[in-house]
Amino acid sequence: MSSVNEIRANANQILRQASELQNANMFGPPKKKTNSSEHSSVKLDELIESARHIYERMVQLHPEEAGNWIRYAHFEMKNGDVARARNVFERAVKKVPLADDEEEDDGAEQLFKAFAEFEQWCKDAELCKLEIEVALSR
Length: 138
What we know:
Mbb1-like; HAT; 5 helices; TPR-like_helical_dom_sf; mainly alpha; mRNA binding; single chain; 2 domains
C-alpha cells in the first residue's frame, strides 16, 4: 500500500507536467491547430485524469485528512471545474471528523473554512459575470 507522501509526490509530478503543458499551450506563440497541438491537449486531459485518480485514491485511503480533500478541491478549481470542486467539498464534509477537544488539530475547521471561501469565490465570480452581462446589454 502506498503512503500518503508517495501518492502526494506522484500527484505533484503529474500536476507539474500538466501545468507545463498548459503553460506551453497558453503562452507559446500562436500556432495553427496541428496533430501536435491536438496531441498536447489530449495529453493534458490524460494528465488531469491521472491526477484525479491519484487524488481519489488518496482521499479513499485517508478520508479523515482534511488537507487531502482541500488540495483535491483546489486542483479542480484550478482546472476550472467548479462542479467537481463543490462535489469534493461536499463529500469531504461527510468524511472528515470533528475534533473531540480544543487541543486536537481540527481538520474539519480547516475544511469548513476552505469550503466557505470556495462558496464566497463562486458567489463573487457569479456576481462579476452578472455585472458584465448587464454592462454588455446596455
